Fold this protein.
Amino acid sequence: MNAQEIITYMESLRNDEQRQVLMGFFKTGPGEYGFGDDFLGLKVPQTREVVNSVAQDFVMSEIPELLMNHWHEVRLCGFLILVAKFEKLATKRLENNTDAIRRRDEIVTMYLQYAEQANNWDLVDLSVPKIIGHWLLLPTNLGDKDYKIKVLDELAVSPCLWKQRMSIVCSWKTSQQGDPSWCLRYAEIHLHHPHDLMHKAVGWMLREMGKRVSMDLLRDFLRQHAHEMPRTMLRYAIEKMPEKERKEWMNR
């Protein structure tokens, strides 16, 4: 299947009842964060089924047609094809393979080029940890660690909410692999972010960092910042702590 055939097939699965549910859930009304996004009404497993059937042989040059499509699920399909391709090139066996490094870098470059098309939280959360987050831990020809920090800093200070979310949610992967530095850096940068979606994302990533790396590191961060954190952010960060300790943090 090429891009147009995928779009036609996905349009044939349109479910108007589910479409209305999704457009409410993802806040697509005037003044809401997802305003203007349009849904076919497909469930994620339906999109993943398409991805699984095409990802291996789908040519990179066709992916932008999916990423630029106005249907939310079609864009998700494009991002998940990039995820599938990246993961196949990021196995232990291929970590240092010259061709795999080049092709991973192509995927990262395309992802960043079309990042604004991931214009809702699910598109970000289902793609950025497995592409950008994993890339942070792998060899690349694009630049050294300072270059990777520059890439994430640019996302973090972008006027685009979804790019800002990418800069912190990508740390889901780095924390899973035992590196807390990315989470701690971007949690601090976004500490005073005005949007509730970022409060939830930062708190969630701090919680994951504590769970995957060190609860003591999480407590150190909270000792420095709990007094200035939005309550939603703090509540998400301490969610897995014992109830007595949670109450102590919230009382601060």
About this structure: Residues 72-89 form the longest helix (18 residues).
